[in-house]
Amino acid sequence: MSLLKLDSVSKYFGGIKALDSVTLEIENSKFTLLIGPNGSGKSTLINVVTGIYKPDSGSIFLEDRNITGKKPHELYKLGIVRTFQNPQIFPNLSVLDNVILGISPIKGESILRSLFKPIWLREEEELAEKAYNILKIVKLDRLWDRPARELSGGQLKLLEIARSLMTRPRLLVMDEPLAGVNPQLAKEILNILTDLKRDIGIFVVEHRLDIVANYADYVYAMFMGKVIAKGSVNDVLNNPTVVDAYLG
Ligand SMILES: Nc1ncnc2c1ncn2[C@@H]1O[C@H](COP(=O)(O)OP(=O)(O)OP(=O)(O)O)[C@@H](O)[C@H]1O
C-alpha cells in the first residue's frame, strides 16, 4: 500500500484548472520528485496534500485512511509535515531552541503545569536532548548555541528540516529545498534526505534537476494541471512530452 495516494484530485481557481484529475502515489522509504514548468500546478498540489487547499473533487488517502479535506494541523498530527522554500525560523533564538520549537505548543507553557516545575524541567531536558540528536542528523550540532540569524541560507534549510523532524513525520513534503543553496550544500541536504527516507516518505518539488536527479527514486512531471509523465528520472526526463512542456 502506498503511503499517500491522490485519486483524481482536481482544484480550480475560477476558470483555471490548477489540478486536473491528478492521480499520484507516494511510497514509504522513497524520494518522490515532482517537476514541471512554472504554473503547471506543483504548488497547488503541495497545498492540497498539506491541507491548505481543499480539493474540488477527488480523494486523498494516507495509507488506508481517507484524509480528503482535512485541515493542515490535523494532517500535521497525522504525520504530513511540510518545509517551506523560505525557512520559518526565529532569528534571535538559538539553533537548538528553534528545533525545540518544532514541537508546538511547548508543554511547559501551561500555567497548571508550571506548578509542577520538576516534571516540566525534565520534559524540557528530554526535548533538548531530542533536539540535539536531531541536530546531529543534519550536522548542525556544533552550532547548537548560535543564534539562528548567523546561519547561512543552506544551513537554514537544514535547520528547517531539523525542526520538521521533531514531530516524527511519516511524510516530509518539501517545496524547493535546494533553492538558493550552493551545489556542495545541496548535495549534503540530499544525502541527509537519503538517510532520512529509510523511515519516512519524502516528496519534493525541485527545479534544480541537475543536482536532484541522482537522488530521486520516482518522478512525476506536471504540465497545465495534469500529470504528463511518471517513472524513473531517465524515463521522465527523456519523455518527449516532458521535453516539449519545458521547451514550449
Ligand atoms: N490562489 C490562486 N488563485 C488563482 N490562481 C491560482 C492560485 N494559485 C495558483 N493559481 C494558478 O493555478 C495554476 C497553477 O499554479 P501553481 O502555483 O500551482 O504552479 P507551479 O507549478 O507551482 O508554478 P511555479 O513553479 O511557478 O511555482 C497557475 O495558472 C496559477 O496562476
From TrEMBL:
Q: Indicate whether Zinc-finger appears among the record's keywords.
A: no
Protein's UniProt name: Probable branched-chain amino acid transport ATP-binding protein LivG
SUPFAM superfamilies attached to this UniProt entry: P-loop containing nucleoside triphosphate hydrolases
Q: Which residues cross the membrane?
A: none
Q: Which parts of the sequence belong to the ABC transporter domain?
A: 4-247
* Record's function text: Probable component of a branched-chain amino-acid transport system.
Q: Which keywords, in A-to-Z order, does the entry hold?
A: Amino-acid transport, ATP-binding, Nucleotide-binding, Transport
Output the GO biological process annotations, alphabetical, semicolon-separated.
amino acid transport
Q: Name one GO cellular component term.
A: plasma membrane
SMART domains found in the cross-reference section: AAA
UniProt-recorded Gene Ontology molecular function terms = ATP binding; ATP hydrolysis activity
